[in-house]
Structure prediction request, 341 residues.
Amino acid sequence: MAIRSKLVGLTAVAAAAAVVLTGCSSTGGAQTQSSTATAGSGTGSAGTGGGAVADTPRLTIAMVTHETPGDTFWDKIRSGAEAAAAKDNVDLKYSNDPQAAGQSTLIQNNVDAKVDGIATTLVTPDALAGAVKAATDAKIPVVGFNSGIDQYKQLGALMYFGSDETLAGQTVGQKLVDNGAKKTLCVIQAEGSVALEARCAGVKDKDSSTENLQVNGADIASVQSTIQAKLQQDPSIDSIVTLGAPIALAAIQSAKDAGSSAKVVTFDLNADVAKAVKDGTISFSVDQQPYLQGYLAVDSLWLYLTNGNTIGGGEPTLTGPAIVDSSNIDAILTYAEAGKR
Prediction:
């Protein structure tokens, strides 16, 4: 696909993106949904920025995720994407499937529809490689976000927006060690997710006491009972690391039911987790700023297609880790309640 002519009156998007408020969350399951957000009329944050819509030619950009509906993390991804689409005169085609084969099919469907650009998560890179190659062979630019930081280049994606999950895990592990953790449980809620596995590997790199626990994130009741059973089996566990906000809330109840004093820390943030950080129920959260990931994924494709821009200098653009704890929760809570953190 040829790069389009330079935008007349191009806004300083890079500066705007820098101030947009700063995980990969995955809960498994088998549901699919799709929607379209159009400039000035989308849902969520779309059309609420107050600025003029770009006067560039109308573009169609597809966003394909491995999301299971109902997770507040993905609501923020989509909200950010819709805000960028509204500003950029983009017709946003949003679709999702938590199964690798289904996500691959959605990418291929957008290739067949000849969209102008594709933004996709790469949580199962091997399974998605063929569909991504079909896009790049068709000269459709692809950017990765949220998952696949170590694989996006080899798959042919131009840019990547997300957290370095290994670095984020190491940050958590070091903070736990500094806080005196003796035995840590790292809860993985989606089997086979490279991002989630990298988080727990990073934690263990700094906190060698870490043990992984696999749970079925699509069934919160099962998550709660599995963590509770583990805590009852091993009362030496004094720290629980969860990899998504809903799992953190389940872990709090698990510890209570098990009579455990284990402290909970989590990746990712929503309003409930922010309140739990505020009241001390959760020690701290690691925010990868999903709103920003969705926004930049769409905005970067618009900049590339209309002005030939790339972001990151050939390296991933990191949106995290950002630690949210007692030192900054008062400021962050407002943004979390607004659905942007």
About this structure: The domain at 165-287 is CATH 3.40.50.2300 (Rossmann fold). The chain has twelve helices and 13 strands. The first strand starts at residue 33 and ends at 37. The longest helix spans residues 290-307.
